[in-house]
Amino acid sequence: MKPGRSLQNLATELTRQLETKKDFIVPTPAMTIKSNAMGESVLTAQFPNDSHDFNLTAVARRQLAEKLKIPFQYFERMRIEEPQLLDLNVNAWLHRAFEEVMLRTGDQKLRAVLSRRYRRIDNYQIADQVIPVLERIPGATFMSVELTETRMYLKVVSRDVEAEIAPGDVVRAGVVISNSEVGCGKLWVQPLVFRLVCANGLIAADQHLAKTHLGRLLEASEETFVVFKDDTLKAQDDALLLAVRDAVEAAVSQSTLSMLSQKLRATMGIRITGDPSSAIEVLADRYALSDYERTGVLRHLVNGGTLTGYGLVNAVTEFSQTVADYDRATELEMLGGKLIELQHGEWQRLAAAT
Length: 354
Prior knowledge:
The protein is an alpha+beta fold. 45% of the residues lie in helices and 25% in strands. It has three domains: 22-115; 123-265; 269-351. The radius of gyration is 22 Å and the shape is globular. The two termini are 31 Å apart.
């Protein structure tokens, strides 16, 4: 599992950010973009008595481009090569139609451009409520916490809930809680499987577990264990805390770990009979891995010495520890979880690729 920052550092940064963050509801005609000499896009929001200037983050640029129906690749090309053209295009579309949007700002930056209906579930709020719940997990160890431009992550493993995949190959139950306060995904809770021998983390998804334990408050999907939709969640903080508590208890349970361990054991019997590099190509095409990621996963698969489905799952999760970007590393841990859910026919097509 990729390491992050300390829990104390996370708390300090969340507190600091809380003091600088402000949200505004602004009509699009009251906004203007101007590129500066540093190649940065600066948005000016005009209010009745004053105005505020904000440098756009990459997230805000993408969201603004999407809202104005400007392809992001073209948006970025104009920003780099023809900034005056970018300003002309963006301002024309901003002023053409009236729409009120939410601007999420902090540290003099525009962090997000969102619908005014966006349900704000902030990282500080989540951490303040969830960390005490996580600390009460028997044998709880905070293995990795991080705060990126797009998401906050809390990854906790229990020393008291274990299973053996094979003799000497022990895994522990854990949970991942992640939240985005800038519109880059929902608040979710997912089971985590931590493999002791190589410190790999695998993030699992099981919609049935979400439906069983959390009822009407939550919506299940193929990719998440528990989903809170930003624009529909109306529960008060105490109800939210109860829902998260139930999700955590379900994730870090012997029954959940037993179920996931059984799925992991099943991948041991899947032999990669074709060309390993071809198997990785099939994997990469299906899950949009970059060339760098293809090479890295293949190297870990071959070096692992086990050309099986289990070896491939571990190659993906072990490679994730070397990825510089924490968000992407977590996505690869989720990919490990998706692989153990593959049907037999899907595994066979991958394993026999030549």
